[in-house]
Amino acid sequence: MTVEYVDAGEAIDQGLLTSSPRNAPDVAMSVGYERLLDARNESHNWLTYYGAYDGQRYSLLDEINTETVQSIGPAWIFQAGTAGMIAGASTYAFETSPLVVDGVMYISGWDGWVWALDAKTGEQLWRYKHAVPYDVSLCCGNVNRGCAVAKGKVFSVTPNAHLVALDAMTGQKLWDKTTGDVRAGESATLAPLIVKDMVIVGSSGGEFGVRGHMDAFDLESGEHRWRCYTVPKPGEPGSETWPADGEAWARGGANPWITATFDPDTNMLYVGTGNPAPDFDGAVREGDNLYTDSIVAIDADAGSIQWHYQCTPHDVWDYDSTMENILFDQDGRKMLGHFDKNGYFFVLDRTNGELISVTPYVDRIDWGTITRDGKVTPRKYPDAEGEPVHFYPGPAGAKEWTHAAYSPRTELFYVPVQDVGATATRRRREFREGIPYWGAGVQVDADDMRGSISAFDSKGEEKWRWRNNLPMCSSVLTTAGDLVFAGTPSGEFVALDARSGEKLWEFQCGSGHHGSPMTYSVDGRQYIAVPVGWGGWIEGFLPGMLGAGHGSALIVFALPNIPAMR
User: Fold this and answer.
1) Where are the domains of the chain?
2) How far is CA 170 from the centre of its chain?
3) pTM (2 d.p.)
4) Least enclosed by CB within 10 Å: which of 8, 313, 332, 385?
5) pLDDT tens string 142-153
6) Catalytic residue among 318, 340, 419, 482
7) HEC per residue, 430-480
8) At CA 502, angle to CA 496 and CA 508, rounded to 5?
9) How far apart are CA 292 and CA 289, in angstroms?
10) Beta bridge partners of 295
11) Which CATH class is domain 14-558?
12) What is the pLDDT of residues 443-468, one digit of tens each?
């Protein structure tokens, strides 16, 4: 029987189904590489995903500080809302980090949404909705972590592995490029990064047995510049860490699904790579499996790997190393700080990948040990078919993708910690394209869990700890006001003293936090913005809260706006 192809027709333009004026101020045209290099000094703006290329998530704004933070309250709220069916057989979450350019805010959301708002009032200026197929394969939630802005365009990736460029004034689509093979299980979730005249993105989908890669596109035309695969093919350096026979390398994972950091002096992108595939069945991929679970330095112009450091060789615990690589300088040395899923804090020389120090940052680690010279010794892992093995931390890690922050004022790192274990039972499965390739059944502990915001110096010494009875699952923001902001799974948004960890302020947002707060100012008034929308891969990091309310709001806080006396 022959089945004819039926054209589904054009999707409805969601941008038209709104009263938005579709006319934002022309503020993005002047954003280019030179401004991004100096992004931190434009403290009224938040021009790029981490606030600056170094990934520190630190702002120079200090109107809101340890003395004034008790007085802040909601200035405005944007309700993103949900409409119709959402692609993928998994939940959505509001995991974004907004950008602000001279009074205009740009936000991306799940399922291909992008919005432009007035950063002072929250008024919607335009919106865009990408037409995402309902049956797209998604591992860990229908999510998007942010957008990029440059040369009059807003760039965002979509769940079905596209990179779109939108007109920053109207939200109209200018170009659309495919970044991965959605049929094989590839998707895209990260915030693009603008470097020079390129848009840099990375692939998602390691749980489907795909081969990870980073890609660069021409900012103006969308032309593909380069692709860097994060698993070597036979004959390339690192290929000896994969089985010589078969195609384990071709479905090896190592997806770089979190935005890279960048050092213009070294001209290197610093990116973390994801787990090997299958996640828990290491017998079908003997060897260290480079460049999975690694910190990789990539030449920004050529797209070639310059050095690597592997945090978890031959991973059988699902310990992605995709988490941010924070760049900082100390004692005349260019360094990089990385809090890995496996529970260890790595500090490297970012010029050559040399290990400077490695120390644990969570209380319970029993999967294995890493000595101070970097030697890894596994101790507990699911190597026998059908036999359950419990280990700490669980597959969501001692820290999930959500980001740590670093303050040059205090010289401390602030990390959201998850102290929760899991049980994995190996279940061998044959590889089939587009089908999840886990290699085990996994049950994350539903009790006996805790979390914290913990402060560490660059030598790994813990300076203070703010404790929470649930794992901390959202990114951290720190400011020159000596504050640390973070959200809890139960909805509290808190401000801590950056030097002592004392809680100074709290606001119940009505839904759990799983995104990235940021700060900016308009007309001299400082704002703190936090996306609120619990969801995503909850069964992987906090299954006891699967039934909690989703939420889908951006809440923006400020000090009272007291009119001047006449």
Assistant:
1) 14-558
2) 27
3) 0.96
4) 332
5) 999 999 999 999
6) 318
7) CCCCCCCCCCEEEEECCCCCEEEEEEECCCCCEEEEEEECCCCCCCCEEEC
8) 50
9) 6
10) 272, 309
11) mainly beta
12) 999 999 999 999 999 999 999 999 99
